[in-house]
């Protein structure tokens, strides 16, 4: 009897815990394989049905071209699937609502649909989704509102994702729907495509014109409890509450980290109120009138360190002509220029109040040259995009970060090093550059010319000019086998020499330190990939959703048992990898950093990289450990990578062969916690400099001016050259103002 009673109590407790858990709002944790919209620039205003005036019929090519000519950054259109499988743009539920046709749109084949004309127009036709994508490209953000009367429509999901992949528009398209099954299908089919979950809690349609659409939403999908479970399952990148918007509900969702787009907002007052409480985007039929009246604070831009500014203007450059015009505008208005990609730097390198910010994400063409085996890349392209192109030719990136979501222009501007063995920083693989300088001139620079400007731009933090194109060496896309050894951290240098440096087959390598506070830095793992034979290699493929991995990492942010669990999980993962088949170099390098994105907004991640000569690694690790314990710093992970000496850039960090320790810390957002992190970093740097080490400059500006001059004695001459080549200091940033302060 006692056992039966205890069992009942346990069951009741479990049910109670589960019910409480399911009733809470899930935290924002999207599994998509691209940068989430709260990190990158996001369109504050979106033209609903592509409407910005009454001159053109909604959802037509004429309306689209109007938006393209305007400053409205986003377009929303309605997508349906024809009977013969062609995605097309149309809003109405029947053809007679808007055209000279009759019937259900989805019941018609495309050859019949394309003959129809919209009412009250001279000759406006229904357009295909493919026509829309070729017309807009990445010039604007596109929201595809999927219309389907089927609950399960895998055919539509496949058709849409195929077109997005064909035109490589994963970074600027959002697929939205009330239908969670369709969104889940898109998520599973293409995890690198962003999705937006539309929902409503209204019991009645707020107006007659949307009543037909409202009635199609099942009662169950209007229930808040069900919507929470949908968010848990599909992990949307964006949320869009529709119709009657409850402000308390909005605040709750936003406080849990979700980027929110409010729809059908047609007054400046309503738009301003929503932006003030944290809504990211406004989908509206009156975007032009609203955009002119809503305060410019809605256009604030941030970097990954949490710094934010309000630019005078954000220009999304697509072509060289766009860049030339932007420089002319800056000169005529006496504005500074900042250059931004995905803005993963943390020290204001892409930011400056009242500047003209050039957003390069739409400037992203990638072309491989089989004759020279080099690749030409525009600055807004991500490494993932480059990898997709190279994979078709059996080639691979020669040097890049451990993660592929960064832009190439930003990467060159900080001159990163990677985890490719026996490699100097990225500058060592640059064959040529095309750069636009502050005087408006375009320079064609080649490494064989040994030009000062060539060396200055590499690791120049966007201060010597804007990179228009870069030509990089590539490497063969070899077959690789994963290897690993768990070792005492004191033996890391010797183990690296044995398993990597003296191993001619080793191509990729890195190490990790255990961050469990009870065993801090007492255990280490050394992981590498070495060449092997494989009859056939898989094409480049996307990684599966990483929600579970992120959950483990974020548990380690709050609890030490999470750190223990993570180290245990890493060992388990390594054992599985040791028994896995060979993979291509491209797939080994096809990783992204979203596992690191924080879930809770009460804390932020702080990155610092400390580089130390190999022979001084153990002394520095001991020093770092001491300061972490003394300051009670919450460290999330430490990755160790080798970098060879840099003989090219004018501001080198790799002054000899070194190990770089990339450290991620979790920090609260209060002034006291910021002060503590600054003091901790300066103490670490003091010891680092005693060991002939340096700190990498793309991260937080926590170092003192004295520490900067000690680590980078070249910086005085570097600043003088910058002021010589750009006498009006047109290319500027918070970072440059900090490092050049008091310099003549």
From TrEMBL:
Entries under Gene3D superfamilies matching the protein: 3.30.465.10, Phosphatidylinositol (PI) phosphodiesterase (3.20.20.190), Uridine Diphospho-n-acetylenolpyruvylglucosamine Reductase, domain 2 (3.30.43.10)
GO biological process, one term: lipid metabolic process
Domain spans labelled FAD-binding PCMH-type: 307-477
Protein keywords: FAD, Flavoprotein
InterPro entries, per the entry: FAD-bd_PCMH, FAD-bd_PCMH-like_sf, FAD-bd_PCMH_sub1, FAD-bd_PCMH_sub2, FAD-linked_Oxase-like_C, FAD_lactone_oxidase-like, GP_PDE_dom, Oxid_FAD_bind_N
Domain GP-PDE: 43-294
Molecular function terms from GO: FAD binding; oxidoreductase activity, acting on the CH-OH group of donors, oxygen as acceptor; phosphoric diester hydrolase activity
Keyword Cell membrane: no
Keyword Hydrolase attributed: no
Protein name: FAD-linked oxidase
């Amino acid at each position: 009897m006692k056992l039966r009673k205890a069992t009942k109590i346990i069951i009741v407790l479990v049910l109670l815990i589960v019910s409480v858990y399911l009733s809470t709002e899930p935290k924002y944790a999207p599994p998509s394989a691209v940068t989430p919209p709260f990190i990158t620039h996001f369109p504050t205003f979106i033209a609903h049905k592509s409407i910005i005036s009454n001159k053109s019929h909604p959802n037509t090519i004429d309306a689209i071209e109007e938006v393209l000519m305007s400053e409205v950054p986003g377009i929303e259109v309605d997508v349906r699937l024809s009977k013969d499988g062609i995605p097309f743009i149309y809003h109405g539920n029947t053809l007679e609502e808007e055209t000279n046709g009759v019937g259900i749109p989805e019941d018609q084949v495309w050859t019949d649909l394309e003959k129809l004309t919209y009412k009250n127009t001279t000759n406006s036709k229904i357009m295909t989704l493919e026509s829309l994508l070729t017309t807009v490209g990445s010039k604007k953000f596109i929201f595809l509102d999927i219309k389907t009367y089927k609950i399960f429509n895998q055919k539509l999901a496949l058709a849409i994702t195929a077109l997005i992949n064909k035109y490589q528009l994963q970074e600027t398209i959002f697929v939205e729907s009330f239908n969670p099954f369709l969104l889940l299908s898109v998520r599973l089919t293409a995890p690198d495509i962003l999705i937006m979950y539309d929902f409503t809690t209204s019991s009645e349609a707020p107006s007659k014109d949307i009543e037909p659409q409202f009635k199609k939403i099942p009662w169950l999908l209007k229930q808040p409890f069900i919507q929470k479970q949908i968010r848990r399952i599909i992990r949307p990148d964006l949320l869009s509450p529709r119709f009657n918007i409850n402000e308390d509900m909005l605040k709750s969702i936003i406080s849990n980290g979700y980027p929110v787009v409010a729809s059908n907002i047609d007054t400046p007052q309503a738009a301003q109120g929503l932006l003030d409480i944290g809504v990211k985007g406004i989908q509206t039929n009156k975007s032009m009138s609203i955009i002119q009246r809503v305060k410019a604070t809605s256009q604030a831009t941030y970097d990954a360190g949490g710094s934010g500014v309000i630019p005078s203007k954000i220009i999304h450059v697509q072509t060289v002509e766009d860049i030339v015009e932007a420089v002319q505008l800056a000169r005529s208005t006496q504005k500074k220029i900042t250059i931004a990609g995905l803005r993963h730097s943390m020290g204001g390198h892409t930011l400056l109040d009242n500047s003209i910010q050039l957003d390069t994400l739409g400037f992203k063409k990638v072309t491989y040259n089989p004759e020279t085996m080099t690749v030409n890349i525009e600055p807004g392209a991500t490494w993932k995009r480059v990898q997709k192109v190279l994979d078709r030719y059996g080639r691979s990136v020669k040097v890049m970060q451990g993660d592929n979501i960064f832009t190439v222009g930003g990467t060159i501007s900080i001159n990163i090093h990677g985890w490719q063995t026996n490699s100097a920083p990225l500058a060592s693989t640059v064959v040529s550059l095309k750069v636009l300088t502050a005087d408006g001139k375009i320079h064609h620079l080649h490494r064989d010319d040994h030009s000062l400007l060539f060396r200055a731009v590499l690791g120049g933090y966007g201060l010597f000019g804007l990179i228009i194109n870069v030509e990089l060496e590539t490497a063969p896309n070899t077959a690789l086998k994963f290897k690993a050894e768990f070792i005492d951290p004191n033996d890391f240098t010797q183990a690296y020499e044995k398993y990597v440096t003296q191993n001619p087959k080793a191509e990729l390598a890195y190490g990790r330190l255990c961050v469990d506070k009870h065993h801090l830095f007492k255990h280490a793992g050394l992981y590498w990939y070495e060449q092997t034979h494989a009859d056939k290699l898989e094409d480049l493929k996307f990684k599966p959703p990483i929600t579970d991995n992120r959950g483990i990492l974020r548990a380690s942010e709050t609890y030490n048992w999470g750190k223990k669990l993570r180290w245990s999980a890493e060992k388990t993962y390594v054992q599985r990898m040791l028994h896995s088949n060979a993979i291509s170099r491209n797939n080994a390098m096809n990783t992204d950093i979203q596992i690191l994105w924080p879930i809770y907004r009460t804390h932020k991640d702080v990155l610092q990289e400390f580089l130390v000569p190999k022979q001084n690694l153990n002394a520095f690790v001991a020093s770092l450990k001491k300061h972490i314990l003394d300051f009670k710093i919450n460290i999330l992970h430490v990755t160790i990578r080798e970098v060879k000496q840099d003989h090219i850039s004018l501001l080198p960090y790799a002054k000899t062969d070194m190990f770089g320790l990339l450290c991620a810390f979790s920090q609260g957002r209060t002034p006291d916690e910021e002060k503590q992190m600054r003091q901790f970093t300066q103490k670490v740097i003091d010891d680092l400099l005693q060991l002939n080490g340096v700190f990498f400059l793309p991260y937080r500006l926590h170092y003192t001016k004295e520490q900067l001059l000690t680590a980078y004695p070249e910086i005085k001459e570097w600043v003088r050259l910058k002021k010589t080549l750009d006498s009006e200091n047109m290319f500027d940033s918070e970072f440059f103002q900090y490092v050049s302060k008091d310099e003549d």
